[in-house]
Design a protein that fits this description.
Order of helices and strands: HHH
Number of helices: 3
Organism: Monopterus albus
Membrane topology: Peripheral membrane protein
Pfam family, one: DUF2205
Distance between the termini: 111 Å
Subcellular location: Cytoplasm, Cytosol; Golgi apparatus membrane; Golgi apparatus, trans-Golgi network
Radius of gyration: 30 Å
Family: Belongs to the SCOC family.
Helix content: over 70%
Structural class: mainly alpha
Shape: rod-shaped
Strand content: under 5%
């Protein structure tokens, strides 16, 4: 075996090692990017949960303040909201958080429309 053959083999090994090192580094960067994305999604998820709790409490307060939404038990309220979300074609089925958020916003809009209607009736009586 000549020294040229040995040099070529060493050069091929070095090139292969360099290629593998670059591939490992690229995979590490991809993993870091994915990890950052997961953290961002978790943070957004927590934010949406918090917003949903606030909106849910707001809807509950609206419902308890309005005689239209008064029911005798909490199961009926849950059933109303469940039926409301499952039967409305405007509420997307992409995910439970998005569907809940849309249902809450739709309920707020319905309450707002109902209140405006009641105000119009009251104004017409005067």
């Amino acid at each position: 075996m000549s020294s040229d053959d040995g040099d070529l083999e060493n050069q091929a090994e070095v090139e292969e090692k360099t290629r593998l090192i670059n591939q490992v580094l690229e995979l590490q960067h991809t993993l870091e990017d994915l990890s950052s994305r997961v953290d961002a999604v978790k943070e957004e998820n927590l934010k949406l949960k918090s917003e949903n709790q606030v909106l849910g409490q707001y809807i509950e307060n609206l419902m308890s303040a309005s005689s239209v939404f008064q029911t005798t038990d909490t199961k009926s309220k849950r059933k109303f909201v469940s039926n409301f979300t499952s039967q409305d074609p405007d509420i997307p089925t992409a995910g439970p958080q998005q569907a809940h958020r849309c249902a809450v916003l739709k309920a707020i809009q319905l309450h707002s429309d109902w209140t405006a209607c009641q105000n119009d009736k009251a104004n017409n009586r005067q």
